[in-house]
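Fold sample X.
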Amino acid sequence: MNSAIVAPEVPTAPIHDLTGKNAVITGGSKGIGAATVARFVAGGARVVTSGRSQPDSLPTGVEYVVADVATLDGVDLLARRAREILGDIDIIVNNAGATVPHLGGVLDIEDAEWVNDLNINFLAAVRLNAALLPALYARGKGSIINVSSAVTLSPPSPMLHYATAKAALATYTTGLAAEAGPRGVRVNTLTPGTVGSPGADAIRRAIIDGVGADRPEAGGIPIPLGRKGEASDIAEAIAFLASDRAAWITGSNLIVDGGQIQTR
């Protein structure tokens, strides 16, 4: 019997591809955000990151702002502090996201939950970009990465509010890239697949417990590369899009999912 094919480890040798870059990364206290912060620091960037509460630890040299970017006041605070700390900003990573699954389906999602998901998963990015883009335009360079989700490609009903907000983010990214490109700013979407993280694992467990592992809502689609993703897999892809190695990439949606979602 042939053993399962397992993808190799992500290379751990540091790639100094972000030296001299100043980055703002939202949702940097755990999961993909924390891995992205660590990868950017390893790549030579100065980083300001944010979250709703102070984390227990951060990589050396990272500046942390306690701010709820689901609110306009929180975004304004983060943008102001980032400018004060970093001065010029080269990279914006809109990673913050959250949701609560509703196992009763679409009609179980109350209006307030739709608004909450739009605020944190879509409007947080729109507002932060609006606050920081003028300076990027003035300098004629920069890179923005908006983190979406593979649930937009096959949206389960318990998470339709989240999938809708993330789909709006991807559409917004495409339009912003068309405007920003001639001004020297690249804008891309990064769409992670099934990745292990505290928040995502809790959501998957809630759905599996509620509907069963064999239901489509549970997302039980085989992964051709043989494993669930790690936060470092996504961080590496974000770093690539942020770096000058991706200098001719804008308006793209990079799907990083181990081949799980087959698209044409």
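Fold sample Y, listed below.
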Amino acid sequence: MAAPESGRWKEKPPPTKAWKGKQGRSRAILAAEQDRAAGGRNRRMVDLGDGRFARASIELKLLPRTRRIRAYLRWSDKGRSPAEYVGEVTNDTRSANLAQAWGMARAAGLIAEQEPPEDSWATSPAVRSVMQGNRGKDTKPEVRLRSLLYAEGLRYRVGIRPLSNLRRTADVVFPKARVAVFVDGCFWHGCPEHHRPATKNSEFWREKIEGNRRRDAETDSLLRDAGWQVIRVWEHEDPAEAADRIRAILPARGRAPGSGTGLQPKPTE
């Protein structure tokens, strides 16, 4: 059911930030934006019938003449891109309007939740979805972050132990500056914004995630005691903002941007 059209912006058009995203954002960033608004990747599914599902997205469109922002649910199905009108949104920011639209789509029964296959050990569609999105290394957020750092002239090592006698591997390491960067998945590392406790086998998953958090804290402490600067980046963070944060720290650690360390990243960068 669509929300009533309030015609909120009568005197002037709504602000651009209410409907339009930043230009040049990667597909990974756009997907993360939709995940946040929907409340998780598993909450973006459309039932296509015959046991088939598709992951949908919300598209916001401004109608200049009427000064309204309308939301549409879009997905792909056998080369086609169907769309379903969800309703009018009335917030001042894009993130709030996406969240409002997802809530409206769910209330209208347009969103389904896909059950995991019988041979899956995930206890719910939510767990399966986030586990599929969390690879051990070379994840999309890692690769994007490394590409941005490399484009800035920064040189680093990938997937090594900052301390040879400590069995903890960092995702991006600046040995000369003694800076270790960890890109943490929201599920496995218990993101306070996106982690949702499992409802099945909850004690097991609670202990697992809490154990990961304790290990992260211990790693940070051990590295700092050894004189290292530790930076943790959540997978949902904008990689450009994370790259700026890392770059700002390096000069203070005796490492000027673009000066080089003689350490080249992997050829895939």
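Sample Y note: The helical segments are 27-38, 94-107, 125-132, 140-151, 202-225, 239-252.
Also: The first strand starts at residue 45 and ends at 49.
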